[in-house]
Structure to design on (111 residues):
């Protein structure tokens, strides 16, 4: 009976150690940039979904703008764009960067 309890405690401790190691490893990978590298010269300015797994993207390479078609298996150059052809005014809030406080304030204003 005591050995069964001891085995269960050991397994639980090992499980917790694996969880902690996974947590710190995922944080390290996220900070290291191994998943996605950031470049000051290459940016995706806008993405528009035209079909499942098919997108048109406007990308900025240095000070030039290009339209590309992106699908599951390839990337196709569509055209070069000039700055005058684009609406580059900044949006109020980017979808991925909306804070809880911002949403809460919008709801409060409506009521």
């Amino acid at each position: 009976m005591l050995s069964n309890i001891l085995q269960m405690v050991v397994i639980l401790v090992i499980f917790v150690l694996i969880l902690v190691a996974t947590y710190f490893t995922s944080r390290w990978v996220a900070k290291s940039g191994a998943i996605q590298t950031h470049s000051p010269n290459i940016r995706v300015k806008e993405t528009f979904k035209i079909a499942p797994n098919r997108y048109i993207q406007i990308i900025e390479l240095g000070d030039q703008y290009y339209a590309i078609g992106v699908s599951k298996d390839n990337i196709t150059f569509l055209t070069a764009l000039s700055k005058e052809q684009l609406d580059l005014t900044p949006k109020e809030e980017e979808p991925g960067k909306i804070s809880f406080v911002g949403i809460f304030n919008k709801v409060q204003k409506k009521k």
